[in-house]
Predict the structure.
Amino acid sequence: MTKEFKPDPVLSEQIDRTFVKDEYEPLGKPVYVKKETALDAMAGDGGYQEAYLGDHLRFKMKRDNKRFWAGDNISDYLHEGDKEKLIDEATEAFELVLDRLLIDRENDPNSQGTARRLAKMYFNEIMSGRYEPSPDCTAFPNDSQDRYEGMLVVRSELRSVCSHHHQPVSGVAYIGIIAAEKLIGLSKYTRIAQWCARRGTLQEELCNDIAREIEKATGAKDLGVYIQAVHGCCENRGIMAHSSLTQTTVLKGAFKDDGNTKKEFFDNIKLQQEFAPR
Ligand SMILES: [Zn+2]
């Protein structure tokens, strides 16, 4: 005999779960209030506060479907004073990491302030590009009769860390554009590149990020970014290769489609390397 399937009355209940009846009837009659989802509650909108600001921000970003990978900028979610609070919280977490690594942070004088040093270093230095808004790049018009129409190549020193092991990545980015209707100050190219680099990155992604931000700031459609860098990841651990060099290139517009423009870009890079070898 086949047993008749009876759905669970609670699980299969067809009710609108978005609004629920407030059983206290504060107005003396039935009142329906919007039901908070678990993420709403964790994001703290209902007056509920997480013990850690970091958790509160994490839930907020999850609810908004905001990606917060190591290479993403999350400055929109931070308010004044938040960074100091997050550094305090990260200090506490790094203390626990040191304890778990069995490093005596109470008696070893060199390890006493290490947890806080690490927290500050992450927020203010090696990953500062995640927490700070994009550099302010005032653009100047390039639309006069004798406007500059040539190629511009800027070399920017880069310091980054890999997302996988947080090992240092150091190198240079060559940023080339054919000037469009606006120009930005020369130092801004490097500021943008460093803002993109000061996060946990992959060199391939970093190359794309810099190209996208330069395009945004200058309006140039013809551009190229070439990065060469050495990775602590390959030097200090893993294969321990001391002279490995990684090169990545992103080419857009004429840099990609026109052989002469592409050649001019790489000739310029060679000239730069002859002028200041590294
Ligand atoms: Zn790595």
Observations:
- The pocket of zinc ion is lined by residues 162, 164-165, 167, 233 (CB under 6 Å).
- The first strand starts at residue 19 and ends at 22.
- Residues 82-100 form the longest helix (19 residues).
- The chain has ten helices and nine strands.
